[in-house]
Amino acid sequence: MKKNEIEFGKFKDLAYQRPNYDEAKEKLKECISKVKKAKSFEEVDEALHIYEDILANIGTNAQIAGIRATLDTFDAYYEEEDFINSKEMSSLSLVTKKLNQAFLDSKFKEDLNNKYGSLFITTIENEMKLINSSVLSNFSKEKKLCQKYDKVVAQCKTSFRGEECNFYGLLKHMESTDRSERKEAFLAWANLYEQASDKLDDIYDQLVAIRCDSASKLGFKNYTDNAYLNLKRFDYNQNDVKIFREQVKKYVVPEVAKLYQDQAKRLDVYKLQWYDEQLFYPTGNANPIGTKDELVKKAKDMYKELSKETGTYFNFMVKHDLFDLETKPGKAMGGYCTFIDNYKAPFIFANFNGTSADVDTLTHEAGHAFQAYTASRNIDLLSQTWGGYETSEIHSMSMELFTHPWMDKFFGEKADQYRYFHLASCLMAIPYLVSVDEFQHQVYAKPSMTAKERREVWHKIELEYMPWRDYDGNKFLSEGGFWMQKQHIFLDPFYYVDYAIAQTCAFQFYIRNLQNHTEAWKDYLSLCKAGGSKGFKELLTLANLKNPLEEGTLKDVIPEIVNEINKLKEKANNKNK
Ligand SMILES: [Zn+2]
After folding, report:
1. Cα 335 to middle of ligand 1, angstroms
2. How far, in Å, is the centroid of ligand 1 from the Cα of 43?
3. Does the pTM exceed 0.85?
4. 349 forms bridges with which residues in the sheet?
């Protein structure tokens, strides 16, 4: 039975209360004995739903605290609460492990399998391997280090042409049409990272060591195996991901090299530098028109026109003010979408800076939010709302592309330029995405590497996947310092290739959408509704998508998308004349 929706006002008014973990543990113990003593499947099922309710109640408060901690990294109260919740949840998972064992030992295991799908059992079997009492203190230390990372980067700022800038502020100047301004901003950006690099290297050294130690205590051969299971990669392995990276090298890298050559010609520069990569047109990138509130209003109209389902969902987001979009001092970096269980409410966090990336957030994070909103109202178990990251990113990246026809609302005259820039950028990002993946495989294969050695590894990877990359002689970046600008490497190990895998699925939706919108949207909706109730391969089949991890998929998909990129380029150029 699905829980009723709870009425609530706006996110900012939601009350936070630290969950009562002792009470939760007692209730979980009751669930365990209920499952052990169960005489019917109904009793087991009831225990499962009580368990889900306990987790949802804790999750709701933990999510609220977690969001507020990132909204203001100076807020000591939520920082502390976020830490405590994380610590208590690790300790609670020792009890849930026992409950999972009871499910696995139950004579009604087959009924669980029949009702909730084989993934349910696979998931809990794997969860068993991911926790024991010997790693709890490591998890706390890891969380503390992640909080420290957030603070170090959130507090990095510099004065640029009389303006106080954080990394985002500088990135905006790196899109300037004035090359000397781009270069100056780039140097300030590089210096900011270099100044923070000792602290960041130290944090990363410790993170790698702790993660490897936890993996060993849990009985894994190495941390990579552990991380794959953390990410619920049940139906593919490191070799499949390697096959994917090889396909990228063969089919994507040469095409992206051509796109950058094109860009250098357009910008009329002899050699494209990294600070030129972000500027697509010499006259300036297409920037969205309007304030934050106006952009949200446009998004609301767009989602209403796109489909009935997206319209209802976005109204809900606006009604409850489930966004925090503008960048501000002390706010954590990045963008994310999370989900507040009891309210079945997604929340979108972003750092708007006036560039087209703001619109990408309204389509990308809104894709995640739409999926969570939809799946949570369609699937019985809250724990199956989300799939793995490779699946979740299909929802978001495809939404970026499904909304292309509405970009005139956001970019006016420059909509065609945006569409070309955006689709080309999607392809151009892939070599970097797999570089981050390759880097982490190498780091965790040899965890004793020094900071200098890690930089050498990154530098070699750049030569292989991004041979066009040039830092204009900046020593720190030319020697491999660039890796440390990637938040995921610190906070979410191995979560990154997922974007590349998902992008190649989103490309398939893009092409199919041009051929037959109704069919493509129908499959997309089925995928969103299915959430994480099925495995990755099964979900691909459900949505009629080819598996990017299989040899041959990129060979088919990439030339088709390059063809579409070229068409958009023609269109944008014709408008420009
Ligand atoms: Zn995403």
Report:
1. 8
2. 38
3. yes
4. 324, 336
